[in-house]
Each structure stands twice: as structure tokens, then as C-alpha cells.
Write a structure and sequence with these properties.
By secondary structure, the protein is α/β, with parallel strands linked by helices. It folds into two domains: about 90 residues, Arc Repressor Mutant, subunit A; about 180 residues, Rossmann fold. α11 links the parallel β6 and β7.
């Protein structure tokens, strides 16, 4: 996947190819304006207001309790970018992508991830300080303490739902790939026990449990994450087959030969290389013979040339390093964790629904 300027006519294509389009302006001013427009429209309930039928700007403003003239400007901006479509002379309707992704009634919706982007907006404002001092933000601590960063100056302010938004956002993001993950994860035949490390929202564990009816899924995470996502787990409707366990994956007793599958999805990028080596050794002891450890995460490029292909792994390496102190890892690094723990590495599996993300898998002999 590549993000950037997309020409819509032969002349625009030629201008882009010839270097006449000031792409840095598009990537900054327009991208920033467009991202904030989507966040504000989602938070204001604009897409929900249009979910049942086309409406005028005045009708949307009344439904969302917004000012009429600014609402018209917002709707025109969304229409200009293709998220909304005109419906007659004065009405607006949802485009196909907006109906699929930005309305809660849709099975594919990612509403909470878009809402959490407002918090991430504040996280990336820490980049300069991270580059100057090498000090990560510590986003998990801020969220768990009910604090977020006020844009200017960057000082903590009270926000008691911050961690809840974080878990709901992760839950929405996981929904994009949950079915593919359930389909492609190499669950051993006859598997009975799944341990999901750091996956408090439980969406991957739930998808795997549904695909494998004999599987009992336990989601291990820290207390703030479990508190914030308890309702999400209940909503999966799997009852005692999907349960939380409070604990630190680096300290709690994982047992010995206790699990058929251990999943660490988007967990390793919050810990350094040494910690992930220790974790792999703990997991290896906890796996039953034939069991698998699945590290599922974005992959960092090994060379500048490879960065052209693994764009998201490179981009979000900086994001995770600045926000939580670790970052993404290369395939050889992740495979070394498995080999060092005595596991047999299997061929990596690249996810189609989340470009740049792979399952790096080790099997206990």
C-alpha cells in the first residue's frame, strides 16, 4: 500500500511524473486538513446522521446539534474528497466507502479507530522531542492514568475514557483482518487452548475460537487494559470460551506445556529486542509439543531499498519508538527470537488485509 498523491487525469499524471506537483504540500497541508476533517465528522455524528437517508446541510446540523453554515462547509469538504456524494440539488448522501467503514451498523466499521486518531494526533506531536532527546512519550502510562496530551503546550490533561478509546480503536482495527487471521493462523489439529498476549479487546482470539469450535481462548493483559475492554469481550458472545486473565506476560506464570497456540499480535513493537527474546523463551516452555507461537506485527525494512516495499513498517517504526519506546523489527530479528527459544521457524505469512504485517511463526518440536 502506498499513501500519497493520486492523479485523476492524464494531464495530472504527466504533471506528477515531470515533478511539477509540489507533493510535500499535499502530504502536509492537505493531508493534515483531510485527516482532521474525517476525525471531526466522525466524532460529530455526521455519517450516522446520513446513514438512513440523504439529508440537507440544515437537517444534518440539526441532527448533530451543530451550526448550520459550518456544517455545510464540512459536508462540502467531505463531498469534494468523495466520502459523501451529492443527492439532488441540496442533499448529501454517504459514499460506498463511508457506508462501509464509518457507520456503526456496518459489520466492517472502523469508527472507533478513526476516533482514537484524535489521541494519536497528540502522540505524533512528540516526534521532535523524541528526535532531540531520544525520550519516548510513554503513551500506555498516559492512557492508563487517564491522561492525554493537550496539543499546545504538551501537558497532561484529565481524560478518564482515554484507555477505553484506545481499546475500542484497537478492536476496530483488528476487525479489518480478524477473519483472515483466523483463517491463516496454523492452529494445530486437535488444539484446545489459545493464549492471546496483550490482546485485551479479544477480537483476534474470538475469531480464532469461532473458526475452531474446540478452542478455549484466554486473553492475558494488564489490569487497565482488561478493565477498559471487558465489555468488548462480553459482546463477542462466546461466554466461558473467551476469558480475560490479568497479568504481565513477562512475569505471570504461563505454565509448562499448557498451550497449543500463543498469539502475540502487535505486542512485540512495544518491547525491545532483549525483552522479546525473553518472552519467546517463556512462550516456548509454555507450549505443548507441536504448539505454535505466532508473532504478528508490522515488519521493519532491513535496508533503505527495502523501505520502499515495507512502507508501513518503516513509518510506524518511528511512531511506536516515539510513543512507546521500542518499534518494529525485521524478519530476521523476529525469527531469531524463535530459534533462540528452541522453536522451529515456519515460513512467514503476510496478511493481505493489513499490508506490511506478517505472521512470524515458530513451532515447538
Amino acid at each position: 500500500m502506498r499513501l500519497g498523491v493520486v492523479p485523476e487525469s492524464p494531464l495530472e499524471w504527466l504533471a506528477l511524473r515531470s515533478g511539477r506537483v509540489p507533493t510535500p504540500l499535499v502530504d502536509t497541508h492537505l493531508a493534515v486538513a483531510w485527516a482532521r476533517t474525517l476525525i471531526v465528522a466522525t466524532r460529530s455524528g455526521v455519517f450516522e446522521a446520513l446513514a438512513q437517508a440523504p439529508r440537507t446541510a440544515d437537517e444534518v446540523a440539526a441532527a448533530c446539534r451543530l451550526a448550520a453554515v459550518p456544517t455545510r462547509r464540512l459536508l462540502d469538504a467531505l463531498t469534494g474528497m468523495g466520502t459523501l456524494l451529492p443527492a439532488g440539488a441540496s442533499r448529501y448522501r454517504l459514499g460506498r466507502q463511508a457506508r462501509r467503514w464509518l457507520v456503526r451498523a456496518s459489520p466492517s466499521e472502523v469508527v472507533d479507530k478513526v476516533l482514537f486518531a484524535a489521541d494519536e494526533w497528540r502522540f505524533v506531536e512528540h516526534y521532535e522531542r523524541y528526535l532531540e532527546r531520544g525520550e519516548p512519550l510513554g503513551m500506555h502510562g498516559l492512557l492508563a492514568d487517564g491522561r492525554v496530551l493537550d496539543p499546545a503546550p504538551p501537558l497532561p490533561v484529565d481524560d478518564h475514557d482515554a484507555y477505553g478509546r484506545y481499546q475500542r480503536g484497537l478492536h476496530a482495527l483488528a476487525g479489518v483482518s480478524a477473519n483472515e487471521v483466523a483463517r491463516r493462523t496454523p492452529v494445530p489439529r486437535g488444539a484446545r487452548e489459545l493464549l492471546d498476549l496483550g490482546g485485551a479487546h479479544g477480537r483476534y482470539a474470538a475469531a480464532l475460537a469461532r473458526r475452531h469450535p474446540r478452542l478455549q481462548a484466554t486473553v492475558l493483559d494488564l489490569a487497565p487494559a482488561v478493565r477498559a475492554s471487558a465489555e468488548l469481550l462480553r459482546a463477542e458472545g462466546l461466554g466461558p470460551r473467551l476469558v480475560h486473565r490479568v497479568g504481565d506476560a513477562f512475569e505471570v506464570d504461563l505454565g509448562e506445556a499448557a498451550w497449543d497456540v500463543v498469539l502475540a499480535s502487535q505486542f512485540t513493537h512495544h518491547h525491545d529486542d532483549e525483552a522479546n527474546q525473553r518472552l519467546a523463551r517463556r512462550v516456548a516452555r509454555a507450549l505443548r509439543p507441536g504448539g505454535v507461537y505466532v508473532v504478528q506485527d508490522l515488519v521493519r525494512p532491513r535496508t533503505p531499498a527495502e523501505a520502499r516495499r515495507l512502507r508501513l513498517g518503516a513509518l510506524l517504526d518511528l511512531y511506536f519508538a516515539a510513543s512507546s519506546g521500542a518499534g518494529t523489527f525485521t524478519l530476521p530479528q523476529m525469527q531469531a527470537w524463535l530459534v533462540g527459544a528452541g522453536l522451529v521457524p515456519l515460513r512467514p505469512r503476510w496478511l493481505r488485509t493489513l499490508p506490511g504485517m506478517a505472521q512470524v511463526i515458530g513451532r515447538r518440536p
